[in-house]
Write a structure and sequence with these properties.
alpha/beta, Rossmann fold, Hypothetical Protein, Haloacid Dehalogenase-like Hydrolase, Chain: A, domain 2, eight-stranded mixed sheet, six-stranded mixed sheet, globular
């Protein structure tokens, strides 16, 4: 029996290029809630962004935010996995002195930047609007450091080896694609959020279903009882999952709700 369902957001539950869900997503989450099946968004996005996306059903689901760094349900923080502050400061300095790179630091609800260019500031503000705070130093931030994303303007190929080799012993690199390299606390990934929810609600891992399409979903799909990769996901993701699907909501309706 499925008691917990998690889904990645971008590229999985939210189609590529889409900025909002259609009503069927909220209808399914409502029905799961009515049947006492917990639904959770498991995403690299921060809590504020996810809360906005799922606003109509935000009180009927859980959130595994910032790639497992923070897990929330019923407006209560179940678990926080913060990055070590001194190390984050050193990583930020490294990003600052690396040509073509900028950082995006995730707090509980706010995002922090020290932009080197106006173009990057405008890019982040356009994407995250009022959640963005300008800082001169990470030491002035009175918030948990949940995730640090490195933006590589010219693509990660030019700098990923540098950051991975220098920082993989200090932080966990959870994602590396296109223009972004992402770091969280050592040992943390989306599975951390799943385990926190399972402990909280006495759920066994074989009672968990999950959906994903990216590199930061591989551990999740291989750990839960019912891991579904999107049929367009890279082979490394599909091979980690037990199942493949082309539609998250349809799979949930057929395999869990029986409709």
């Amino acid at each position: 029996m499925i008691k917990l369902i998690l889904s990645d957001v971008d590229g999985t539950l939210l189609g590529r290029g889409e900025g909002a869900f259609d009503s069927q997503v909220f209808d399914v989450i409502n029905e799961l809630h009515n049947r006492n099946i917990l639904f959770a968004a498991a995403s690299g996005r921060g809590f504020g962004d996810l809360y906005r996306l799922f606003e109509p059903v935000k009180d009927k689901m859980a959130f595994v935010c910032s790639d497992g760094a923070m897990t929330i349900c019923n407006d209560s923080v179940i678990e926080i996995n913060s990055m070590e502050r001194e190390g984050v400061g050193a990583l930020i300095n490294d990003v600052t002195y690396t040509e073509g790179c900028e950082f995006l630091l995730y707090g509980r609800e706010k995002l922090y930047i020290r932009p080197k260019t106006r173009a990057y500031e405008d890019f982040i503000r356009d994407k995250y609007s009022d959640k963005v705070c300008l800082i001169s130093s990470p030491s002035e931030v009175e918030d948990d450091f949940l995730k640090l994303s490195v933006y590589a303007k010219n693509g990660v190929e030019k700098c990923s080896d540098h950051f991975e080799k220098k920082w993989c012993d200090t932080f966990e690199m959870v994602y590396n694609a296109n223009n972004w390299i992402e770091f969280v606390a050592q040992g943390i990934c989306k599975v951390s959020g799943v385990r926190a929810l399972c402990r909280k609600y006495s759920i066994n891992m074989n009672e968990v279903m999950a959906f994903g399409d990216g590199g930061n979903d591989i551990k999740l799909l291989g750990t839960v009882g019912y891991g579904y990769a999107m049929d367009y996901a890279p082979e490394c993701v599909r091979s980690a999952a037990k199942f493949v699907t082309g539609d998250v909501m349809q799979t949930i309706r057929e395999e869990v709700l029986g409709v």
